[in-house]
């Protein structure tokens, strides 16, 4: 081999050896050790794992560039631009999530406005702009403005009034049996309760009679404003052609106003006053109806009548007859209470104001057809025209 080729070969060998030594010496002899004091940790440096925008750890990582581990360096826990990434473009969570710059101020936990900017102040928990902030935990609009709850003591949208616990029932007449309770409106006609009962052939002839059906109702004479309580059992076979099985029924009345009087006893002696405030009806009949009329109930008035039924013989259904001819089923084994109220409260339980002409018979009214005029109920709801 000539001298130049020998020199070239030696040079190449030397360069290779030097390269290996340099590569070896550039390795970190202690790969698990941390950075020296004052030096940044670069385990998750620029473009760390796995993404930079919204990833787990991007530029800035979980420890800021510069100095020992910190949560407030440049990048630390400040908001990033990812979507709830552990450390997007620097920061543990995304814009508007928990962070020193947002925290419970601008951005806070949920969205812009969190629980401070708008929070429970601008908009508040029931604010007109939004939930717990401008957008807050429930986004823009959140729970929205106050929808209004009748009975909370504050007049809300759609309410005429709201006295809270002082909202009171204002109905002139109320019927109650066990859990059942409803406003009663008298069947109103021209003529007395006795005229309406139309007693003949030892029976009532109101047009509502049916075999095995017992009915109770309030009747109001438009001309005299006399209120009556009527009881009708069964049907007259002679005029209806319907058979009424042999039956026995007894009713006990208590709490009657002292002005109460017997209007009709069907038949004579079967409905009697037993004291100034009590009465008894005991009826036995076959193929006809039975019952009676109690007159003189004050309206407006303050009284409470209890009716105890005893359906002793025959198969019976008991109903309350409404002013429009509809019926409310009653329990034949439970007493019934009819109450009258001469006055009404300032605000009903449904947050409406009682007033003449609203179509609801309130305490102090004799009538209210919803259209006070010269041809029906008077303008003050105290009489009929």
Give the helix/strand layout.
Layout: H1 3-25, E1 130-135, E2 139-140, E3 173-177, E4 180-183, E5 187-189, H2 193-197, E6 213-221, E7 227-233, H3 237-240, E8 247-254, E9 261-266, E10 271-273, E11 279-285, E12 290-297, E13 303-313, E14 317-321, E15 327-330, E16 336-340
Parallel strand pairs: 5-6, 6-14
Antiparallel strand pairs: 1-2, 3-4, 3-16, 6-7, 7-12, 8-11, 8-13, 9-12, 10-11, 13-16, 14-15
Describe this structure in words.
Helices cover 8% and strands 24% of the residues. With 385 residues, it is mainly β. The chain has a domain at 173-340. The strands form 3 sheets. It has a 7-stranded antiparallel sheet with strand order 4-3-16-13-8-11-10, with no helix packed on it. Strands 5, 6, 7, 9, 12, 14 and 15 form a 7-stranded mixed sheet that branches. It is elongated, with a radius of gyration of 45 Å. The termini are far apart.
